[in-house]
């Protein structure tokens, strides 16, 4: 029986780092940066005002800070975007808007609220300290400095920064093309009538969504009946377009396990037991050179197996600097039991440092899975934990909302 870490290493080794491609900012959202990106310009690019007010020499307005109003002529207006700003003449101020270039010679901006808002002559009734309300060139980032580091996921803030420093395209890792295939003669597409003994097929939708969430591009394959020849034919017709194939179902020890029956004879896919619950039966290898990971068929087992083995491997191939889910310590709101010798991943609800178990350990309890926002990790050598015990939780969808 393999340990969780041993099987994680096997799955990770199947996926090579994905090739780099250059994409425009509009297409980069959710992608992962392949190389460091330097700032083409400094931020700010020039000294500018942080307030609507009056650019002044502090020595000429300092008396206002002691209660003596100062009256000075307004020599010019500087709106944001102006490009021909002159030097501030001694004994004058210039009315300035937020983000507008600071005139040479000015060392303070007096907010408009501290004045009578004059346009030709302004009365300054109070004055902030020298250097106040100024943004200096390069104080956020210098030109040429690394703006975005390799391995960074590109969200709204990162794309905003890229645009702000003048970058029009970004080097990213290509999204992995993942085929998702569910097997089983008992499976019926949602919306169709069910006969006795049939169930609606859900795993391929669950796994395709999980692939997309991890940064991949998923395509669901029509599941096939429990027929070895049909399974292999379907597989081989689709593999040339894939970076990874994920199957669910057909890997246990019983009869009619089509995935195991079809792939065991190839000699390139290994089926093992992993010391975990749910998700003990696993498989990994290659088919015609394409990586394949075979997951158990029960929905909870399939989901947990994806989270533990496939998701981090996909994110490493994408170049994520931090490929693993966030973890947090939490205290149990109720006691729990766990089987000896197996690492258990229980569905839980994490809130404010406390975690409660959601449903039982059964791998068929998909309704309970949908209400969980974390996985409670119970080590292999722990069989009982009392209320209040500290556990490690893996934060999944919704955990940080």
Describe the structure.
Helix 1 packs across helix 7 (299-317), helix 4 runs parallel beside helix 7 and helix 5 packs across helix 6. This protein is of the alpha/beta class. The longest helix is centred in the last third of the chain and has 19 residues, at 299-317. 20% of the residues lie in helices and 30% in strands. The chain contains 8 helices and 27 strands.
Looking at this protein, list some descriptive labels.
alpha/beta, six-stranded mixed sheet, five-stranded mixed sheet, 27 strands, elongated
Provide a quick synopsis of the model.
The protein is of the alpha/beta class and 401 residues long. The protein has helices at 4-14, 58-61, 156-164, 203-214, 228-238, 258-264, 299-317, 366-371; strands spanning 20-24, 37-38, 48-49, 53-56, 70-78, 93-96, 108-111, 121-124, 134-135, 146-148, 169-173, 177-183, 187-188, 199-200, 217-224, 244-248, 269-273, 276-277, 281-287, 290-295, 327-332, 336-337, 343-351, 354-357, 374-378, 384-385, 390-395.
What best-fitting shape do the alpha-carbon axes yield? Answer: elongated
**Spans of at least 5 consecutive residues with low confidence:** none
The chain-level structural class is: alpha/beta
**Share of residues in helices:** 10-25%
In angstroms, what is the radius of gyration?
Answer: 31 Å
Beginning-to-end CA distance, first to last residue:
37 Å
Oligomer: single chain
Largest sheet: number of strands, sense, barrel closure? 6 strands, mixed
């Amino acid at each position: 029986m393999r340990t969780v870490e041993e099987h994680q290493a096997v799955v990770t080794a199947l996926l090579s780092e994905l090739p780099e491609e250059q994409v425009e900012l509009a297409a980069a959202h959710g992608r992962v940066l392949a190389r460091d990106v330097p700032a083409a310009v400094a931020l700010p690019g020039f000294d500018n005002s942080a307030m609507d007010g009056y650019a002044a020499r502090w020595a000429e307005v300092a008396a206002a800070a002691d209660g003596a109003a100062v009256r000075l002529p307004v020599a010019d207006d500087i709106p944001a975007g102006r490009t021909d700003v002159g030097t501030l003449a001694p004994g004058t101020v210039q009315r300035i808007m937020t983000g507008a270039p600071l005139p040479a010679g000015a060392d303070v901006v007096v907010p408009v609220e501290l004045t009578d808002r004059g346009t030709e002559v302004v009365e300054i009734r109070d004055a902030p300290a020298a250097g106040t309300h100024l943004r200096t060139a390069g104080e956020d980032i210098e030109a040429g400095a690394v703006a975005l580091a390799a391995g960074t996921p590109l969200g709204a803030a990162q794309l905003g920064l890229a645009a702000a420093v003048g970058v029009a395209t970004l080097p990213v890792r290509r999204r992995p093309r993942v085929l998702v295939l569910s097997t089983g003669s008992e499976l019926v597409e949602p919306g169709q009538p069910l006969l006795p003994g049939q169930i609606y097929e859900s795993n391929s939708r669950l796994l395709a969504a999980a692939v997309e969430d991890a940064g991949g591009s998923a395509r669901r394959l029509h599941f096939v009946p429990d027929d070895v020849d049909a399974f292999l034919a379907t597989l081989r017709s689709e593999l040339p377009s894939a970076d990874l194939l994920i199957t669910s179902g057909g890997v246990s020890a019983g009869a009619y396990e089509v995935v195991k029956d079809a792939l065991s004879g190839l000699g390139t896919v290994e089926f093992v037991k992993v010391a975990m619950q749910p998700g003990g039966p696993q498989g990994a290898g290659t088919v015609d050179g394409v990586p394949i990971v075979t997951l158990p068929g029960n929905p909870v087992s399939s989901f947990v197996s994806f989270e533990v083995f496939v998701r981090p491997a996909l994110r490493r191939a994408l170049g994520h600097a931090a490929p693993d889910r966030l973890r947090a310590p939490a205290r149990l709101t109720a006691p729990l039991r766990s089987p000896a010798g197996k690492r258990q991943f229980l569905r839980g609800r994490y809130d404010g440092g406390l975690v409660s178990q959601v449903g039982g350990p059964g791998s068929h309890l998909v309704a309970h899975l949908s209400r969980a926002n974390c996985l409670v990790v119970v080590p292999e050598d722990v069989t009982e934990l009392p209320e209040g015990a500290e556990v490690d939780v893996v934060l999944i969808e919704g955990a940080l909302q």
